[in-house]
Amino acid sequence: MKMHSRKYSFLITPGLLLLILAVNSCSQGQQSKPLKLTDYPEYESEPAKLYLAKCSGCHAAPLPRIHTFRHWPGVVQRMQMRMKNKAVQPLNSNELTIVLGYLQKHARE
Fold it and tell me: Is residue 98 part of a domain?
């Protein structure tokens, strides 16, 4: 049996492009080392404690500086929806105000 050599060309399909963009966007601004409590601003404050208690159940709570002031409300809303979808009690309105205030206070510019 004769073997044919083939040159493979890689095409960027829409699915591959989406995967590349998703991986890239997930790594943008993310912390690269494991977090310690002291990495969070004002980590002993009540807002920080509430944020860490409510937002680290499914994943490590991201540092507030990874998003901008304007970006945090959308991120928090998306997490609220994910909590509901996983049958986890989302933040009540008071908790939401406190957590969002903490995140926006310490957001990047």
Answer: yes
Tell me the C-alpha distance between 71 and 74, whole Å. Answer: 6
Range of the domain at 86: 41-109
Which three-class secondary structure state does DSSP give residue 108? strand
Our count of domains for the chain comes to 1
Q: What is the pLDDT of residues 48-95, one digit of tens each?
A: 999 999 999 889 999 999 999 999 999 999 999 999 999 999 999 999
d(CA 102, CA 91): 14
The verdict on pTM exceeding 0.85 is no
Integer Cα distance of 57 and 83 in angstroms: 10
Torsion, Cα 22 40 71 78, to 10 degrees, reads: 60
Give the Cα separation of 88 and 73 in Å (integer): 19
Give me the half-sphere count of Cα atoms (radius 13 Å) on the Cβ side of residue 39: 14
Higher pLDDT, 62 or 26: 62
